[in-house]
Amino acid sequence: MIRVLLAEDMHMVRGALIALLNLEPDIEVVAEVSSGDKIVPMARQHRPDVAVIDIDLPILDGLSAAAKIRETMPSVRTLMLTSLGRPGTLRKALAARVDGFLLKDAPPGQLAGAIRDVAAGKRVVDSQLALAAWDRGECPLTDRELEVLRLAAAGSDAPEIAVALSLSTGTIRNYMTTIITKLNGRNRVDAIRIADEAGWI
């Protein structure tokens, strides 16, 4: 029997997933949580084989929770679920060394199969998402450029970003020009949209 911990903040979705998984003869949901901070304590208490984790959780996001599981309980395998098929998000998940990555709109049987594969030590990645990540390529922005763009996406203007990063306003404007050029954006808003859709910010 494969013991599963399910982390999903939407109650109806979590209930539906539990009902579906408990219909499988070899899978048992032994614990459920609605926020990322509860994953490790519940995993310690219930010792699941696989933690199925929504990537967008309150308090502690799913990827950070998965990283904590890997650090503290390496025997627990992690399968991430997301409703957003962004290539950049997949790259972050793979960088966090999760064992599987699946879109929430996958057929129910695919989730059960992914849990079995992950429990058996295989790595599972949604094929459409893998192709999209391959086609999209690496993020062309440097860490500092991403930092500037994240602050811009949060609503900060050039002078505010300059203060936050201890740089001049002119330097921030130069960074924004470079960012827009690298992303082939029309303007700052378009650059933020492009980076957000790719999962880079």
TrEMBL record:
Pfam families: GerE (PF00196), Response_reg (PF00072). Keywords: DNA-binding, Phosphoprotein. Residues 133-199 form the HTH luxR-type domain. The modification 4-aspartylphosphate is found at residue 54. The keyword Metal-binding does not apply. InterPro entries: CheY-like_superfamily (IPR011006), Sig_transdc_resp-reg_C-effctor (IPR016032), Sig_transdc_resp-reg_receiver (IPR001789), Tscrpt_reg_LuxR_C (IPR000792), WalR-like (IPR039420). Residues 3-119 form the Response regulatory domain. SUPFAM superfamilies: C-terminal effector domain of the bipartite response regulators, CheY-like. This is Response regulator transcription factor.
